[in-house]
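Lab manual, section 2.4: Encoding a predicted structure.

Procedure: take the sequence of the chain (315 residues), apply the prediction step described in section 2.3, and record the output as structure tokens. A sample record is shown.
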Amino acid sequence: MDETVVKIQNLIKNYAELRAVDHLNLDIKKGEVFGLLGPNGSGKTTTISCLLSLLSYDEGTIELFGKPMTPTSYDIKAKIGVILQNVAVFDELNVYENIDCFCGLYITDKAKRKQYVDEAIEFVGLNNFTKFKPKKLSGGLLRRLNIACGIAHKPELIILDEPTVAVDPQSRNKILEGIVELNKQGATVIYTTHYMEEVEQICTKIAIMDRGKKIAEGSSDELKKMIKNTETVSIEMAEPAEALVKTMEGIENVYEVTYGEGKLKIALAGGEHNLLNILDALKTEGISFGQVYSERPTLNDVFLTITGKELRDKE
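Recorded output:
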């Protein structure tokens, strides 16, 4: 039986007349990289704040490592590493001193703490910057310092909230590789981001929240099966005649045909030989065309289909 690290049952959190979290249930198993997704205002940040006992909540229960989580659960908190979107380090301390300070909150043995700090510095690749103060670091290096401060004490549960915002591609890649390595070393990870490609790359399980509710959950492949679109074929061509559009609409599995920016786009639901059927129809009609693209839905497609495309205010 898989060990449950985080168990949230029927969580409700209200802000005056606004229900920020609405009967939320989450079950996160040991060893998972759990992606928590949602548009702005969906309740992700509130959920994490309740999980960490930084916020009180109105109803429901939260258990971590099989025990109720409370503001005074210091034994549980020692097992958690938190890396928030807003970098939280001390400007007056250098890189080494910052990591040592945060690690010292949990590790009192000086020899072990030095070992853990050195390992954290090595892990995030800050060996050449140990004497630098935060203001001298680039955005990517600062993010890596933030991560080192959160994981130096070797937590069993790591919560990362938008850790790759506004960093260069090299630092982003280093951060994502680090998260995967931490997971391989045994850490359970909760990961929130707006970058869907990151979620597809590292998360083993994903929950999508909207307006305080969990509206979908599963692996990336499982979530993709929840939407109608399973394939989109794009064909470069001059604007097609209405008769061709009608022909395409009559092909098995086609549910929508649109034209724009020099491309005929054909949306399909199910089927295995859709592209061949479409090309056969074009050949039969004697239609000339340019390049042809076949695309499977991405997690971003799933996200927009499930949550909608309208703009949201920030949480």
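Check your result against the sample. Residues 231-296 form a domain with the Alpha-Beta Plaits fold (CATH 3.30.70.100).
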